[in-house]
Amino acid sequence: MSVVSKMPLVGRTSDVNERESMELWRHVFGGVWGPVDLVEIGDGRLSGSLHSRKVGALTFNQLEFGHQIFKCVKGNNAQRGEPFFSLTFPESGAAKCHVGDQAMRLIPKHAYLINVDLSARLEVSKSYSTFNIQIPVSALEYRLGRRVGILPRSVLQPDTIYHHMQHLISELTSEANQMGEDTLGFLSNQMLDTVAFFLTAGNSESEETLAVQCVRARVLAYLDESFHNEALNPAMIAKDCGISRSYLYKVFANGPSVMEHLRHRRLEAARDMLERSLVKHSMTSVAMTCGFSSSSEFSRLFKKHFGASPSQF
Prior knowledge:
Elements: E1 9-12, H1 18-33, E2 37-40, E3 47-55, E4 58-72, H2 77-80, E5 84-93, E6 95-99, E7 102-106, E8 110-115, E9 120-136, H3 137-144, E10 150-154, H4 160-175, H5 181-200, H6 210-226, H7 234-240, H8 245-251, H9 258-276, H10 283-289, H11 295-306
Antiparallel strand pairs: 1-3, 2-4, 3-4, 4-9, 5-8, 5-9, 6-7, 6-9, 8-10
Helix pairs in contact: 3-5, 3-6, 4-5, 5-6, 6-9, 7-8, 10-11
């Protein structure tokens, strides 16, 4: 997924002498990840180069580096600004990555979502090149949830979702300056939908368009986060998900409606609350917590759905 030619060079160690390369790379790489502890390893010279372009809330980076370990510690988060995920696509070589209590070897033909809000360590003993996208945590919360550590995904061929994402990346990195604000916002949202769908849907294809599948995934993730809000209705859901109400209806036309999905999510949450809580809750408390307008409505729907009243759980 190399797009080096479409992004400006930020810096590279080959432009300075060996004595200055450590400090230059600490500055260049730190501009991407925030303050880092950098250590030279192996029998070669520490090296690195970065091409980067920021488009709206997303930052696209092409990185090549070698013979180094960098550590990015949680205590530096305030200096890094808003927490972000790094969606990385290794292109050559390999790197050992530790995030929180997870460890993984980053290799080509795979993609990895890395939570940079946790303590991270990356080790490259020889050489490694990768393309990555920095995505604010807040931009993926409704689509994917606040995952921790490292989420891997194989890149298989053919992979419709992956190639659609490549196309969007190419458009955003090469044509963003010519786009109007509305077009840029639309493509950025489509990019985030595709990323979430790519990471969670595997390589299966469907008769439905990819765009519809991506938006459905976004809406369902939004319902997972917001089901407790009693005021939710189609107009509010559509607005918060950045689509029209008519398109929302289209997305859920071939199956349960969006409000049926919402009701099911609330009922599942209520059952979990009744089964797992060590504290005895009143029906009113469960109903209000899970977004129902009244305890009587909750009890009626619960019995209809599960075949037993809430008091039997």
